[in-house]
Amino acid sequence: MTKKTGPSLEWCVVRLSDDENWWVDEISDKENWDADDLGIIDPKQFLHINELLDSMSEFGLDSQIVDDAFFTFEIKEELKGGKIKLVRVRDSLLKAEDMLFALPDVLDEEKGPYADFLNHVSQIRVTMLNELIEFAETYTQEEMEEVLSEKHNNDFLEGRRTHFSDELIAILEFVPDGFAIDSDLEGDDKNEEDEDDYSDLEADLVEVSDKEEKLLPDEDLKWDEDEDKEKEATPYEGGAPDESA
């Protein structure tokens, strides 16, 4: 099995799909990876995911498990057809100063680092739910996984691909039907008006390297917010799905 420090996984070519997610089109390690329906989490999506993970810190989130779960990539060059070539970097995803793409380590889907990570954050999410909601009986991880599995199966039957970012956010934001969490208690403002407001992140996005800013135009992935173009239609806004659109 290829390890994170192995030489074979060095680059991948990605494309932006109509579903506003990035998908791997070609990958250097063809022996261990199948590029068909292989998604990759883009930097802005991970900013949102990282905010959700941050709220788990007080409940015992292990940052090493997070780092071990992903291969990290940075932008190398723009290719024809709107595709982008990414190259491997060995940076910590949580501590990196540059904006990185994150490819989950699913070489072993059942017992690999990403599977361990999903189990870890699922346990913490259930702990948070039981802390913040007064259930008649303790809510269990099995109950949460049953609900999410049913949704995943429905998406599959309806021909919808489940992207890694959707899978992960579904866990990190999970609340059982019929219940609600006080946003002040959870430490994450979830009102519809602010949910997708990334204005506080723009300062970080502006600091992206000149190389990345040049290679990744605004219409593909908006590193910098241009107020004059906010009303123009763009194929991608990044981050969590915008349900209000």
Structural topology:
Elements: E1 11-16, E2 22-27, E3 39-40, H1 43-54, H2 63-68, E4 70-78, E5 84-89, E6 101-104, H3 113-132, H4 141-157, H5 164-172, H6 183-186, H7 202-206, H8 210-215
Antiparallel strand pairs: 1-2, 1-5, 2-3, 4-5, 4-6
Give the C-alpha Rg.
18 Å
Shape: globular
**Uncertain segments:** 188-209, 222-227, 233-237
Order of helices and strands: EEEHHEEEHHHHHH
End-to-end C-alpha gap: 43 Å
| Percent strand | 5-15%
Structural class: alpha+beta
Strand order of the largest sheet: 3-2-1-5-4-6
Estimate percent helicity: 25-40%
Q: What can you see in these coordinates?
A:
- The protein is α+β, with helices and mostly antiparallel strands and 245 residues long.
- The protein has one domain (11-202).
- Helix content is 32%, strand content 13%.
- The protein contains 8 helices and 6 strands; from the N terminus they run βββααβββαααααα.
- The protein has helices spanning 43-54, 63-68, 113-132, 141-157, 164-172, 183-186, 202-206, 210-215; strands spanning 11-16, 22-27, 39-40, 70-78, 84-89, 101-104.
- It has a 6-stranded antiparallel β-sheet with strand order 3-2-1-5-4-6.
- The longest helix has 20 residues, at 113-132.
- The chain is globular, with a radius of gyration of 18 Å.
- The termini are far apart.
- The relative contact order is 0.15.
- Residues 188-209, 222-227 and 233-237 have low confidence and may be disordered.
